[in-house]
Specification:
By secondary structure, this protein is of the alpha/beta class. It has three domains: about 5-80, no CATH class; about 90-95 and about 230-390, Rossmann fold (3-Layer(aba) Sandwich); about 105-215, OB fold (Dihydrolipoamide Acetyltransferase, E2P), CATH 2.40.50. The protein has nine helices and 21 strands. The strands form five sheets. It has an eight-stranded mixed beta sheet, with helices on both faces. It is flat. The mean pLDDT is about 95. Bound molecules: S-adenosylmethionine. S-adenosylmethionine (SAM) binds near residues 279, 305 and 326.
């Protein structure tokens, strides 16, 4: 029998919850809350691997072993569905290993501190180690610190790092360096660290100061031009798990719609003809150029799917539909999907709450959820991603 003080689950924000409903920070399922307020570690409580945990805002769940983290992900999805009166088969989550994050935003203070922001604060943890970033990204932290001392920013900078085909693509927001000393320091930094690109943006758009070769990211075997700070799935492993799930849903459909297509993560993985819609101008132009160059049958449309969702009649032309909206979900598009007669739908989501809300609308139109593949690509964080298979039942 479970004691009242035993932690039985992890809440959406990451704290443990006891059988009698008390919230306990940094407690894992199986831990016990003692009378003196201390936690007695249970079998799923692991020693956090990083010295910066829990101050660093990059991770919230390093005290959970992988089994408990998986269960958290499944519970989060099941809970969001239950909130809408829904349930579904939820498969075992595909977890990305440590040190595989290929895209991250770090912050730098004028003092030279470089790292993630402290949870619920503006302070920055000066990173001495990181167990989630790909080694290529982490290797830049110390050299960045030295560069910041030369650039002498007046305010905090946001540094977007992306691992591209040619190396790391770095975009620094908040400064446009001027003068010879800065120019020389930037060139030396980019050259020594073999950067693919280094760009700066002070609010008027990115300006590349280093880009020896055109920067690309290969998606589905196609090198796609990579605009600075583009959306990409956070890890290669996460991308592969989502792509595999989407491919199994789409099957042999000869024409597929990829809605909220980004740079074409799913469009370029599809076997047949693809229609790709995306509101980001740079992204859809990159996708279009890559499709033309690689002779892929991908038809692109620069379209705001919140203001102008595909209509049921437009959707009915496709053998399968893939939708991967931002965190807010796709309320307007979900309403049209509910009325569409397209046979298959792959809904990819980074937010179980908006997913459940949209899927509720879609199922009311005669669809059913076949299964859900969760993906944990933000290791030790409370972010949850998923790909869901839906088909018409009437
Ligand atoms: C979660 S990302 C998915 C991108 C892509 N499917 C991938 O896996 O790389 C969501 C995409 O939706 C785009 N987006 C945001 N709002 C949009 C809108 N109103 N209409 C169309 N696309 C939008 C973003 O630019 C972004 O590329």
């Amino acid at each position: 029998m479970t004691e009242a003080s035993t932690v039985v689950r992890v809440a959406a924000r990451g704290e443990g919850v006891t059988a009698d409903g008390r919230h306990v920070p940094f407690a894992a399922p199986g831990d016990r809350l003692l009378e003196n307020g201390m936690i007695e570690a249970g079998p799923h409580h692991q020693t956090p691997p990083c010295r910066h945990f829990p101050e660093c805002g990059g991770c919230q769940l390093q005290h959970l072993d992988d089994a408990a983290w998986s269960q958290f992900i499944v519970d989060r999805i099941a809970g969001a569905l239950a909130g809408q009166g829904l349930s579904a088969e939820i498969r075992a989550p595909a977890l990305s290993p440590p040190r595989t994050r290929r895209r991250a935003t770090l912050h730098a203070e004028p003092s030279g501190r470089v790292g993630f922001a402290v949870e619920k604060s503006h302070a920055i943890v000066d990173l001495a180690e990181c167990h989630v970033l790909a080694p290529e990204l982490f290797a830049l932290v110390a050299p960045l610190r030295r560069l910041i001392h030369v650039l002498r920013p007046r305010r905090r900078l946001d540094i977007h790092l992306t691992l591209a085909d040619q190396g790391v693509d770095l975009l620094v927001n908040g400064i446009m360096p001027e003068g010879l000393a800065a120019a020389e320091a930037i060139t030396a930094f980019a050259e020594t660290n073999r950067l693919a690109r280094m760009a700066f943006d002070e609010g008027y758009g990115p300006e590349a100061r280093w880009e020896p070769d055109a920067v690309t990211i290969t998606l589905g075997g196609v090198p796609v031009p990579l605009p600075p700070a583009s959306f990409l799935q956070a890890t290669r492993e996460g991308e592969a798990a989502l792509v595999q799930a989407v491919k199994s849903i789409v099957g042999e459909a000869s024409i597929v719609a990829d809605l909220f297509a980004g740079l074409g993560t799913f469009a370029f993985a599809m076997p047949g003809r693809v229609y790709a819609a995306e509101a980001g101008r740079e992204a859809i132009m990159a996708l279009k150029a890559a499709a033309a160059r690689s002779h892929r049958q991908v038809f692109t449309e620069h379209r705001d799917l919140y203001r102008r969702p595909l209509t049921p009649a437009e959707l009915d032309r496709f053998g399968a539909i893939v939708i991967d909206p931002p965190r807010a979900g796709a309320k307007e598009q979900a309403e049209a999907l509910a009325a569409s007669r397209a046979p298959r739908l792959a809904y990819v989501s980074c937010n179980p709450s908006s997913f459940a809300r949209d899927v509720k609308v879609i199922t009311e139109g005669g669809w059913q959820i076949d299964w859900i593949q969760p993906v944990g690509q933000f290791r030790w964080s409370t972010h949850v991603e998923l790909a869901a298979s839906l088909s018409r039942n009437s």
